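Schema walk-through. Below, the input block comes first and the output block second. Nothing else is stored per chain. Lengths vary across the set, and this one has 175 residues.
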Amino acid sequence: MEKCIKTVPFVIMMFFIFASCNKKTNKFFVNDTFPEQVIKNLSIDKYDLNKHEWNFFAVHGNVFEKKKIVNATDIKMSFYEEGKTSSFIMAENAVLNSETGDIKAKGNVIIVSLFKGTTLYTDLLNYAAKTNRITSSSYVRQESDDTTITGMGFTANSDLSDITILKDVKVVKKL
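--- output ---
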């Protein structure tokens, strides 16, 4: 009898848990809201024939194969020219389109050109793989050895050899 009394509250509790589930809850678990893969230290490389174009590295990546996207955190994307790293992007978060190679990065985004000695700081950027262009509509600060340039929005190629700040441009020459 005592054993039966102890199991009654458990059975009642389980009944309420299952009875409170509705179709919305079931739909949530059926659709594609969960990644097919969760990968630590994710690394993806893009080659054009034998030419290494870029490497995308993330400390953590959620791969949604059906949607063809990777949600990544703590990323570093390196661009290559003639086998050497020409520039790289670092950001807190990014979404990589695994089909096109396009990337949207946000959160303390830093772009460093190793060949040009230029660094860009912004909060948000888009990289279009087809055109090899980086764009943003956010505030940007460009630092070089002798100049700091700030403004709103920019376009640039991946090695930062061609940068255009779009508006509200301010230039400060360093001494």
